[in-house]
Amino acid sequence: MHKLMDDLPNSVDVAVFFDFENIVYSLRNNYGINANFEDLMDKCNEFGRVVVARAFADWNRQSSAMIPALMSNGFDPVYVPSFYTNENGKQDLRKNAVDMYLAIDAMDVLHNRTTVDTFILLTGDSDFLPLVNSIRRAGNRVIAIGVDGTVSSHLAQAVDEFIFYSQVSTLPANKFKKRPKDIYEGLTEAIKRLQHQNRSTVLPNVKMMMGELLGGFDEKKHSDNKGRRFQKFKEFVREAEKRRLVQLITTGTVNEVFLADRTVRTRPVREESRDRKRDTRESKDTAKDTRKQEAPGMPLAAAFDLLVKAVEKAAADNRSRRTSSIKGLILDQDSTFDEKKLLSEEGETAFNRFSDFIQAAKKEGLVALKGKGPKMEIHPVKGGESEETESAKPAEKEQPPKEEKAAVKTDISKLAKDQKENFEGRQLIIESMRQFSNYPASFLQIEAYCRQVRNERNIQLPSPKVRELLTEATRQLGILQRISPPGVSPAQYGLNDQPELVATFLGIDVAQPDQEEAGAKAEAPAPAEEKKAEAKTKKAKSKRKKPAAKKEKDAAPKAEATSESEAQSEAKNEQMSLSTAFGLLVTAVNKALSNGKSQKLAAIKRQIKTLEPNFVEANIDNESDDKGFKRFSDFVQAAARDGIVTTKGKGAQTEIHLIEE
């Protein structure tokens, strides 16, 4: 697999740098064995004549038998003190001491031993990436040897050649008992193992896992179906994608690989266009037989029993009765529950969704449903009627459901095109946050759980997109609210899944109140009149030069004559002074800062709207322009020019900050 000594020029000199603790501790902790120094040195000799071989460690902390064993195999032990005495006279650990000594020594050899052509690093630590890049920029080759399962994928990607310890010396009880038959089976198995470990399936991680599964992997030694050698690992993945084994998704600069199961490929190959009709016919014919052959996870009656118990428990504990919460309670009772493995009474039609399973339970009279879409709740049935039967029916006659709360419209066909493409991913984030049961938790813990749910459902949503959507739900909408005080690291978040926030995140319209309700509000503009009265009172107090009697005579008839018309005009186009608008801006920024929320333009504007619903930047009495401000950003820039606030960033990423005194 590797170039032997007879393949290299006789003049090639090799320098070996041994990160002793990284290799030795990794072997002891993961495999319970000591490092075989003889096998390591024999492997290094395959690349040329070893003229420098140094092992770095604090030898006061190692067994006294290690030094003679190293020296007998050609390694020179270099002592690195790992403890020092601090100002209080106590012993403190010196972090990364070995890394610094090794890097300095390697750079010294690079510049002073010009005959050395190849550098071998015995380590799996990603801290040596700057050293690797510096050596390669000087035109030298870098090889790394690391212990299986403990190596940084970034280091393996950066060096010219990476070798697993299992390729150098035998490891006991190899965790991969049965190796894949070929490289393509190794690719799919590597993706499955990474997803099982809840690790990202980016290209470096996949290649590293393939190396462990196959006992080393080099794509340049393999060819595509036309006999051309792969030059990059990405080319090998593209070939596997053409064979319909995987799908490669690129998000920005991140490439992730997913198994091509139960999803529509975004880049179908030519063969797929020719065979699509045939595959569709065959899939329809075999789908029914496949469901029959697959054994259900549990009997349908047992699944219904779990559902009833979960609903009763939610009612007894006064917990949420929404479908996602009920499913979580079912999984708490039996983790093997999967509605897709359950069959109907006829044994032919599987439940594609949890909602289908719920509807089947409703038809059997086991549960009662209330609401639709994301707001649907599941209630227990007692005496043939649900808990809310007696109270719900009269309420429906007296008041339509739209007057109780704004109902979420789940007509996905009305969503914008970009919302349609992201709807499945956004729905995954919402369901994952609702199923997560360890609140309060850090952002990274919640993100890891979202990726875990993604892997379990085999949804091809790249990890950067998961973080992007979760960040949007947290910073812009506040679905995840920070509950830890400022300065606490990592910040702790709790769930705030209000229907309006969830609907906004999913891109779903919210039904507006009935016209009658809107008309009733228009006919009774009491709040506007109260504000008008308060404003007139303040104005009257400021004009104390007028006699009190004359003031009362002028104010009373004027208020009676104009109160109704002015209230209506202000409701449509209420003017606001520039100083008042600046005051609202400062209050909104201060509140966002104290609550740990986003300070971007859109978030601050929403905060101002909560303080003053009638705020419109176009209606601000701008001293230099009677038309007000065209955009909210223009209003913010005006505040920045006047020294009210300061801004950072550009465009939609602009953040508003208070000026520190």
Task: Outline the structure in words.
The model is unreliable at 1-6, 262-275, 290-296, 383-418, 510-530, 539-553, 555-565 and 567-572 (pLDDT under 50). The chain has 661 residues and is an alpha/beta fold. Helix 7 packs across helix 8 (203-214), helix 16 (417-435) crosses helix 17 and helix 23 crosses helix 24. It contains 25 helices and 19 strands. A six-stranded parallel sheet has the order 3-2-1-6-7-8. The protein has a three-stranded antiparallel sheet with strand order 11-12-13. A two-stranded antiparallel ribbon has the order 4-5. The protein folds into five domains: 5-167, Rossmann fold (3-Layer(aba) Sandwich); 183-259, Nucleotidyltransferase, domain 5, CATH 3.30.420; 300-398, Arc Repressor Mutant, subunit A (Orthogonal Bundle); 412-506, Arc Repressor Mutant, subunit A (Orthogonal Bundle); 577-658, Nucleotidyltransferase, domain 5.
